[in-house]
Design a protein that fits this description.
The chain is mainly β. Helices cover 0% and strands 50% of the residues. It has strands at 3-7, 10-13, 18-25, 33-39, 46-51, 57-59, 67-72, 77-82, 91-98, 112-113, 117-122. Strands 2, 4, 5, 6, 9, 10 and 11 form a 7-stranded mixed β-sheet that branches. Strands 1-3-8-7 form a 4-stranded antiparallel β-sheet, with no helix packed on it. Strand 7 (67-72) and strand 8 (77-82) form a beta hairpin. The mean pLDDT is 94.
Amino acid sequence: QVQLVESGGGSVQSGGSLRLSCAANGYTDSSYSMAWFRQAPGKEREWVATIDSDGDSSYEDSVKGRFTISRDNAKNTLYLQMNSLKPEDTAMYYCAATSGKSGFLVPEDMDYWGKGTLVTISS
């Protein structure tokens, strides 16, 4: 059973930066695609970015050029570098893993989930 544990969330002002991390514990397989999702209060969970086993990445349009997803397979850790943050980026951010899929993903595609880390951006 894979356990995903996010960290790095916090409160920053608009224009600031945060780096989220997601540690994968237990059995891990570098062939999994890893993704970040987010869920703002009163809204559905939405896809943010994916990185597949080859290191190819995909991004939701509103975060392109501001967010960077990366992974360190030796450390079993996923990252999300978030720059130029905006109030509309405020949400709970979730790390997730899936086997056999990549690119744009929906929550139903994912096999494993973390419990989330809260990001709050003030204007």
